[in-house]
Amino acid sequence: MSKRFYVTTAIDYVNGEPHVGHAYEKVIADVIARARRSLGAEAFFLTGLDEHGQKIQQTALSKGKSPQEYCDELAITWKSFAARLGLSNDDFVRTTEPRHKQAVQAILSRLHTAGYFYKDTYRGFYSTKEETFLTDKDRLPDGSFPASYGEVTELFEDNYYFKLKDQQAWLIDYIEKNPGFISPDHRRNEMLGFLKNNTLEDLCITRPADRLQWGIPVPFDTNFVTYVWFDALVNYVSIPAAHGDPVVASALGSQPSTSNPQPSLWPADIHVIGKDILKFHAVYWPIMLKAMGLPLPKQILVHGWWQKNGEKLSKTTGNIVDPIAVIDEWGLDAFRFYVVRELAIGPDGNWTDEGFEMRYESELAKKLGNLLNRSLSMLNRYRTGITPVRSDELAPAAAKIVAETRALLEQNELQAALQSIWSLVNHANKYIDDTAPFKLAKDPAHAKRLDEVLYNLVEICRILAVLLWPFLPGTAEKMYRQLGLNNSPDQFAASAWGGMPPGQKIGDVTPLFPIKEKPKV
Ligand code: ME8
Predict the structure, then answer these.
(1) Is the overall model pTM greater than 0.70, yes or no?
(2) Cα 50 to Cα 236: distance, rounded to the nearest angstrom
(3) Is 306 in the pocket of ligand 1 (CB under 6 A)?
């Protein structure tokens, strides 16, 4: 049975504030999913929310709500955030849903029966804020724990542990033999360094129910709930299982749907995550999967973190970027463009309002917007808005950039793909300057040459819409409407030269990215 291309994001903590870092990650995954669909693959894009844990329980109770009520309210904000980002996700997982909880419990039962877990008593320190146990290695030189852990309490409690000690050697071997498994390379090296220089501690996969009720009950011992990370990571397979994925169903011991057999999703093609949660994805998750008898994801794609004006994002200091405010003011595609164009997937990025406005004005309004506007206005003025006969003058230049963009999209080099697309924008703007259609229009003897130039310009605009669709879907659709085309530019194959039909009447011409008047000082 065929396999669908499957891309996921980290699932956000439901009690966090949606910020530019969350938005960036979701937009990158969306561009990847759309690019694959445009290239002809059947792609499935999953995002969602991480809803269990002590912090949620505490906050909900302090507000006089049940944790579920509290999560339900917050989930509305996050779902509308996803919609405002224009995400084309095929599903939205919430870890409090029965379909997810069932999968977590099935996995726990199977791994318990297979002897992967043991029970032991823990005595030591615990950070509720990070929901993690601390060791002496976590202490500062003065013996205290860093403030980032919040209040640290001493604990003495029983828990279940996942044996990790025997797992280190195969994982190192796997990462070494599969160079694309963790991308970019420096993150792969970071993980190899970690695995080679440390002995893995067994992973505590439960929390006692008398301390934490807001978690998935452990099926073989109801005195415990599941550790949030064990719960959260499973979303990547619980949703495929819910969609009838035969590979996951057999690992979970459930029956795949025979009435409506689905092409498999697992293994995921790409997990898009931020740099801070790499260890969970590159160490614990592969070990969990191997124990379940499931293949590993093909790639963990690790992005960097956004700052603003060179400083960490922080609600307390007010150093924030509110993606919704930016979208309200500048439009969704301007936001999507800036984050993908500004930051390659890997390094950290720095948001500046000046940088945003500069890219808006120069790259979107002046280069792309003006190209379409000038081309269509000239077609209106000189040819009553009717596309002339086909001419192939710019076909070789377009073909070269189309091929380059395709290769970059296939490698998820999104920033470079945008650079490549803008090289076609620049080429076409230079073509206007070089051929000077406004001069040609003055002399009827140049009518044929003017026809050629105008056809080449509208055809380049059409091809640009196709190339831009995964990044700026709304803009790409608008470009097609202005060109008078009724279909969607959502198929990469339409970037082949000659798609603009001669005799086509173009649509209404309006600026794609209006220049904002600056207040006078
Ligand atoms: O870690 N810039 O959730 P989360 C870029 N629930 N990305 C950022 C960022 C920033 N300033 N701040 C956060 C969790 N992120 C878990 C994930 S997955 C099974 C469970 C990224 O809400 C962060 O790196 O804290 C992560 O990939 C995502 O936002 C969600 O972070």
Answers:
(1) yes
(2) 12
(3) yes
Cα 480 to ligand 1 centroid, rounded to whole Å: 36
Nearest in space to 334 (alpha carbons), one of 305, 368, 372:
368
110: Cβ contacts below 8 Å, ≥ 6 apart: 251, 252, 253, 292
Atom index in ligand 1 nearest the CA of residue 235 equals 19
Atom of ligand 1 nearest to the CA of 275: 24
Residue with CA at minimum distance from ligand 1 atom 29: 22
Residue minimizing CA distance to atom 19 of ligand 1: 233
Return the closest-CA partner of residue 85 out of 292, 336, 409, 326. 336
Distance 34 CA to ligand 1 centre (A): 22
User: What is the pLDDT at residue 342?
Assistant: 98
pLDDT at 258: 60
* Residue ranges for the chain with pLDDT beneath 50: none
Instruction: Give the pLDDT confidence of 407-452 residue by residue, as tens digits.
Output: 999 999 999 999 999 999 999 999 999 999 999 999 999 999 999 9
Which residue puts its alpha carbon closest to atom 15 of ligand 1?
21
Q: How far apart are CA 66 and CA 81, in angstroms?
A: 23
Residue pair 348/304 in contact by the 8 Å Cβ criterion: yes
Residues paired with 125 in a beta bridge: 134, 154
Cβ of residue 292 lying under 6 Å from some atom of ligand 1: no
How far apart CA 282 and CA 193 sit, in angstroms, is 12
Tens of pLDDT, residue by residue over 77-121, are 999 999 999 999 999 999 999 999 999 999 999 999 999 999 999
pLDDT score of 5: 98
Atom of ligand 1 nearest to the CA of 312: 11
Lookup: tokens for 26: 């979701």
Residue-wise DSSP of 332-386: HHHHHHHHHHH--SSS-EEE-HHHHHHHIIIIIIIIIIHHHHHHHHHHHHHHTTB
Q: Is the CB of 388 under 6 A from ligand 1?
A: no
CA distance 161 to 490: 48
CA–CA separation, 29 and 22 (whole Å)? 11
Q: Ligand 1 test: best mutation among 100, 230, 276, most atoms within 8 Å of CB?
A: 276
* CA-nearest residue, atom 9 of ligand 1: 21
Ligand 1 center to 71 CA (angstroms): 18
